Amino acid sequence: MKGPALLFLSLLSLGCVTGQVSYTIPEEMAKGSLVGNIAHDLGLQTKRLASGKARIYTRGSDEYIELNRERGVLLVKERIDREALCKQTTPCALHFQIILENPMEFYTVTVQIADINDNAPTFEESQIEFKISESAITGAKFVLERAVDLDVGINDLKSYELKPTDNFALKIHSNADGNKNIEMVLQKPLDREKQEQISLVLTAVDGGEPQMSGTMMIVITVLDANDNAPVFTQSTYKATVTENSPKGTVVATVTATDADQGSNGKITYSITNTLDDVRKMFKIDKGSGEITLIGNIDFEESRIFQINVRASDEGGLTDSCKLIVDIQDVNDNKPEINIMSKSTVISEDAKLNTVVTMINIEDKDSGENGNVRCFIGENVPFILKTSTNNFYSLVTDSELDRERSSEYNITVSCSDEGVPSLSSSVTLTLQISDVNDNAPVFERSSYEAYIVENNTPGLSVFTVKARDADWNQNARVSYILEDSSVNGVPVSSYVSVSADSGVIHAVRSFDYEQIKDFHFRVKAQDGGSPPLSSNVTVKILIQDQNDNPPQVLYPVQTGGSLVAELVPRSADVGYLVTKVVAVDVDSGQNAWLSYKLQKATDRALFEVGSQNGEIRTIRQVTDKDAVKQRLTVIVEDNGQPSRSATVVVNVAVADSFPEVLSEFTDFTHDKEYNDNLTFYLVLALAVVSFLFITCVVVIISVKIYRWRQSRVLFHSNLPVIPYYPPRYSDTLGTGTLQHVYNYEVCRTTDSRKSDCKFGGAGSQNVLIMDPSSTGTMQRIQSEKSILDEPDSPLEVG
User: Taking a C-beta distance cutoff of 8 angstroms, is the pair 73, 39 a contact?
Assistant: First the structure.
C-alpha cells in the first residue's frame, strides 16, 4: 500500500485546541518513509509547528513515527512489523498525540498498520506420527495440527492440501471463532500386510500475493486392530479464572472415554496449541485430564484463552475438544497519571481558563475498575476540565495574585471505582510571575518633621518610606520631589529628596523669623513598566533658636544728640521717669524679656521694673541729688543661652532748663560730623554757585529770627516735661502726666549759637540736648512714631 490515507479530522475546544487525524500505512515500510502531511491535514502552518515546539507524545516506550517540524510531515522512524506489534489483533494501529505550546494544543493521531503477506504458514512440528490400527474403519478421523500464519485478512491461511490421497482425505471444519480444525479421514481401509508405514505431506497455503505455503510430514504406522476411538464428553468446555490466581490453580477437567479395553482403551490427554502462549500458562495431567495454571494470568494482557485438548488411546485413535477460559478482571492497577505538557511559570495577570497543564490518565483495568475520576485540592485558583476521554486540562479558575501567593503546589489525585479503590497522585509546582499591579504605599498618610533654624545646609531632616508589594524591579521604589513653590520660590531650593533612600535634606539654612513652616509633596515611583506611583504630603516646621538679641525701641539715642528724661525735684516715691521699650523677633520663651539696672549714678534713687521696663524713683528726690543721672539698663531674653542688649538712659533732675543745660555743656561735640557736613556744603556751593548769595541771605535771616525767639524763651519760666513712649500711659496713676506729649529739638550745623523753640502741647515729650550748645534748646512738635526714628546706638550683649 503506497501513500498515506487521511481518514478523518475533528476539532474540539475545551480550554485548549484538540483534534484527531488518522492514516493507514503498510507494514515493513523503510525508515524515513512518508506517513502523511500532518501540518496540511490539521490546517496548521509549518512555522506553527516550530514555534509551538511540536512533539509526539506516546504512552508506550517505543516510537515508530517521528515528526519533521520543518516539513510538517510524519515519517517512519523504525521498521514496523505488524505481527510483532499486534499479533492477531485487527485492526492494528498506533495511537499517539502531537503537543504544541504557546498556546497549548494537542491532536490525537492514529496510524493503522496494514498487513502485507510477509509470513508463510508454518507448522509447529515438521513431522508427526500416527499409529493406526488396520482395523480402523472407513471414515475414522485423525486430528491434525493446524498451521499458523502470522498474517491476517486475505494474507492469512487459506487452504490445506494432503498428498497422496490413496487412503486418506482431508476434511476441514470451520469454527465460530474463525479458526479451522483439520482432520485426516480414512477413506480406504488399511492393510498392515500391504503397507506397514504410510508417508503423507500436508501443505498449508495462504491467500496473499505472492502466495506462500508451509508443509508438514505425516508418518503413519499401521497397527493391528483398535476399532474404538476416544470420545470427549463435550466438544467445548468453558471455565473462568480470576487474574493473578496463584500457580497450581485447577482450571477445569476434561474427560474422554474409549470403548476398547486394555491398552487400546487407555487414554492419554495432551494440549495441542502450538504458537500461542497456552502451553506457558496451562498444563494438563496426561492421565486425568485435569488442567492447572502454571503461569501468571494478567487480564490486561489476555482476556480469554482457548485450549485445544487431544485424547489418544494406545491404538492411536484420537478425539479432540476445546476449553474456553475466560479471565476475570480484578482491580490490581492504579490509575497512571501522565503529564503531557505543563507550564512551570504563569503570569499573575493570566486570563481565566488559561491552560497550565495537560494530563492523560490511563487505568489498565476494565469496567468499573477502569473508571477513573480526578480532582485537585480546594482553595487553589485552578480547576480540572475534561477535554476528551481520559484527557484533562488544568486551567485557571480565578484571578491570580502573586502578592497573596507566589507559588502553588497543586496535587492532582485520581482514583478508580474498583473495590477497594486504587488511587495515585502527582504534585505540580507552579510559580506565579510578577506584574506591576501594586503602587508604592507610604508608611504614613502624611509626614510632619521639625528642624531647628540656622541648620547646616545638607542636614538630613528625616526619611519618608514607601513599600511596594510587587517583586524585584517592580518593587524598587524611587523618591521624587514634586514641583511646587513656597512663597514664590521653588521648593527644590528648600529641600531635596534622595531618590534611593527617601532621606530629605535641607538645601539651605532656615530662619524662623522668615519662614515658620512649609508643605511639599514627595512622590514614590516603582521601577515597573509602566511605573506606578503615589504621593504624600510632608510638612516641615521650623523651630525657633535664640539667635536674635533684644532690640531697644526706646529710648532712642543718636550719635550727635543726647536724650534726657527730666525728673522734678519734687517727684515722689514711685514717680514714673520713663519706660524702656524693647522687642525680640524670636518667639516663645526666647522672646520673653526681663529688665535689670546694670549701672546707675545713684542706685538708691531709681529702679527698673523687671517685666515692664518702667524706671521709677524709689525714694524722694532731694536737692542733694545730682542733676545729671546716667542709668545703664540691660535687657535680657529667656533663651538658652540668653542674649541681651543695653541702653543708656540719661535723667536730668532739675526744675528748670538753665539748670539742666549748665550740667550738660561738657559733652564733646562730634567734630567729624560737622566737618563732613561743611565739606558737603562747600561742595554744593561750588556746584551751584548762582545760589550762593541767596543761601547766605536765607541763613542770616533765619539766624536773626532764631536769636529773637531764644531770647523770649530764655526769660520765660516754661516747665520741662519728661518723655513717655508712644501710646504709653501711667498705669499706676502716680506720674505727673495723664496725656501723651512729644518734644523734638532740631539743629543745624551752627546750632550751638541758636535759640530754642517749643511747639504747643499735643504729642510726645522728649528733650534732646546738644552738648556743644551754650544753653539754648529748641522744641518742635512732631507726630512721628519712635519706630520711624533711626536706630539708637545700643550696646549689644
Answer: yes
